[in-house]
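Readers of this paper often ask what the protein records in our data store actually look like. An entry from our holdings is shown next, in its original layout:
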Amino acid sequence: MTDQPNSPQLYLIAPVGAAASTLGPMLAQVMDRFPVACLRIPGAGTEEELGRIADLAREIAHARDVAVVIEDHVQLALRHGLDGVHLTNGARGVRHARKELGQDAIVGTFCGASRHDGMNAAEAGADYVSFGPCGTTALGQGETAPLDLFQWWSEMIEIPVVAEGALTPALIGQLAPLADFIALGAEIWSEPDPAEALAILWR
């Protein structure tokens, strides 16, 4: 799949709640084996712990030419030299993040399954829009982002689109021609060997 001309790039989401001490080897192992376009740091945790994780992730990712964004924390992104933020509340906050971080920073945003939110985020200046979950999950409101949303977006909107959430090999195969990035995280970190789990998904 990843060898095809229109194949999406891999967008890696770091595990939620992982201590900086265990996170480093996990990230390095995966990023040494697979070409990752962007690494996202989840926004949960104390300021101190997130700062440690941000510094660690930046060091590992930048050594491999991988961009790093953090969820929602604009000031942490600035303070720790990250490449930008991933907002989790749709179009809200895009303009503020852009103003704080500057034109060169990455400002992406999660828009659930809402075409309307995605369009508003694009108009507000987002660098990418993320839709999901794509697979069935009990998390959130239980609403999934359908394939036809990605189909429409890929045909009508120039802003890159990320597919994420409860992804399976079959879903990734269906989304590959439609999405610019496939975001994987929880799908691999719960497995004994995350790199091997990713190899099964990312073929």
User: Anything to note?
Assistant: Residues 1-5 have pLDDT under 50 and may be disordered. The chain has one domain: 9-201.
